[in-house]
């Protein structure tokens, strides 16, 4: 679970510079995907290869049929999905950090300029109040450690959402092509060196089907 904590800590930084939609996506990613995958799904697939049995004693047949039935373990597939889908957010976070530093320097420059202007003895009361409000606004921005989502940062944010959506849909299609929406309890294998066609049996097919549908549903919800 240490790797999940690392990824979670990184994505939490994205959370502070996201819109409401982005924050909802992060909540879905953390609670309904990473937590479920790390705590529950791994146990369901723990005996995946050991419990995969074929009605033959031909040496090598079990391994060949398992490889044919499961080109990639769904657990590893989902881990790759989370990593790839999260990657655009990491790029956005890097851009956000850069813009945050630039915005901080600009804010400090504005504050110095306003403070110097405030010391002008001939300044009218209305202008003093305006400058005072502007100084309070700059201080508030500094306190909450946040800056407006606009300009090039907004474009980066929109681009990272589009790329993330394409990756999400791509993995959903990939999972459907590999396994469909159901894990069948048995698999008929005709791969050599198996003698003729042999029947192989999958462990916990119902539980695995439930998790497959669950991950499909969460992936669909995560697409903006």
Automatic annotation (TrEMBL):
Cellular compartments annotated: Cell junction, Gap junction; Cell membrane
Superkingdom of origin: Eukaryota
Residue intervals of the Connexin cysteine-rich domain: 167-223
Primary residence: other
Transmembrane parts of this sequence: 20-41, 77-98, 152-178
Stretches of the chain forming a coiled coil according to its record: none
Residues spanning the signal sequence: none
UniProtKB keywords: Cell junction, Cell membrane, Gap junction, Membrane, Transmembrane, Transmembrane helix
A Gene Ontology biological process term: cell-cell signaling
GO MF annotation, one: gap junction channel activity
GO cellular component: connexin complex
InterPro entries: Connexin, Connexin_CCC, Connexin_CS, Connexin_N, Connexin_N_sf
Domain Connexin N-terminal: residue ranges: 43-76
Gene3D superfamilies, per the entry: Gap junction channel protein cysteine-rich domain (1.20.1440.80)
Recorded topology in the membrane: Multi-pass membrane protein
Subunit structure as annotated in this protein's UniProt entry: A connexon is composed of a hexamer of connexins.
Role, per record: One gap junction consists of a cluster of closely packed pairs of transmembrane channels, the connexons, through which materials of low MW diffuse from one cell to a neighboring cell.
Family: Belongs to the connexin family.
This protein's name: Gap junction protein
């Amino acid at each position: 679970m240490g790797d999940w904590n690392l990824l979670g800590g990184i994505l939490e930084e994205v959370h502070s510079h996201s819109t409401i939609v982005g924050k909802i996506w992060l909540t879905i990613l953390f609670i309904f995907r990473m937590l479920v995958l790390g705590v529950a799904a791994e146990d369901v697939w723990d005996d995946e290869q050991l419990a995969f049995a074929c009605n033959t004693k031909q040496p090598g047949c079990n391994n060949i049929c398992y490889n044919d039935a499961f080109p990639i373990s769904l657990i590893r597939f989902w881990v790759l999905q989370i990593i790839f889908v999260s990657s655009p957010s990491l790029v956005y976070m890097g851009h956000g950090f850069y813009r945050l530093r630039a915005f901080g320097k600009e804010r400090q420059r504005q504050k110095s300029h306003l403070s110097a202007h405030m010391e002008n003895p001939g300044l009218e009361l209305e202008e003093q109040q305006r400058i005072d409000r502007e100084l309070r606004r700059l201080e508030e921005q500094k306190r909450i450690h946040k800056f407006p989502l606009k300009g090039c940062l907004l474009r980066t944010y929109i681009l990272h959402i589009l790329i993330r959506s394409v990756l999400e849909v791509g993995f959903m299609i990939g999972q459907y092509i590999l396994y469909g929406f159901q894990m069948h309890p048995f698999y008929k294998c005709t791969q050599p060196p198996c003698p003729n066609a042999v029947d192989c049996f999958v462990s916990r097919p119902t539980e695995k089907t439930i998790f497959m549908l669950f991950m499909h549903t969460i992936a669909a919800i995560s697409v903006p």
